[in-house]
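Continuing the batch. This is chain 6 of the set; chains 1 through 5 are on the previous pages. Same settings as before, nothing changed between runs. Recording input and output for traceability.
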Amino acid sequence: MLQALLPRRFFTLAASAGLALALLGGPVAEARAAGADEFIREVGGDTLKALGDRSLTTEKREALVRTLLTTHLDLEAVRQFCLGRYNRGLSDAQRHEYATLFQEYMVKVYSQLLSQYNGETLEVRDGVKAAGSEQVVESVINRPNGPPIRVEWKTHEKDSKPLVTDVVVEGVSMAFTQRQQFESVIQNNGGKVEALFAAMKKQIAGRR
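Output for chain 6:
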């Protein structure tokens, strides 16, 4: 399974990233005209309420994650980055299959991580830092039973809409870590992207 290739510390960080992404699941229409920090701050309320509902089913949680990923994450940019140099060699059929698998893989992984939600809150700092064409927003996840976790958001505008391109948790980039994971699977299987697709399908189906 894909997860077996990563160090245990990654899952603590990924769970935090999943929570942080979940806090972006609320309506965004009012936030589009605001700065990146306001975008991050304002779109969290509805999803916090949803995650706090103990009767939330797996199906509803996955639907919630699918909505936030397709609404607030630049899925195209992130999935291309995660495949790295192997993205250039894809056929049209492989590109279409990868796009479908990547979205469903992200939904499955992060919906599982979000089942661990336990009343954490997101505190966003005012102001942003420039990083090339992107803006970086600093925040902290406050946990009821643990120290706070530093989270940085990388965002850019696409079609006049703010989108997240990466979440950096305690200095660890989730996009770069995912890229290392994908590349490791491909390299360990003779450079064949089909091996990654097979591993993603197993993850989506919940098989080891």
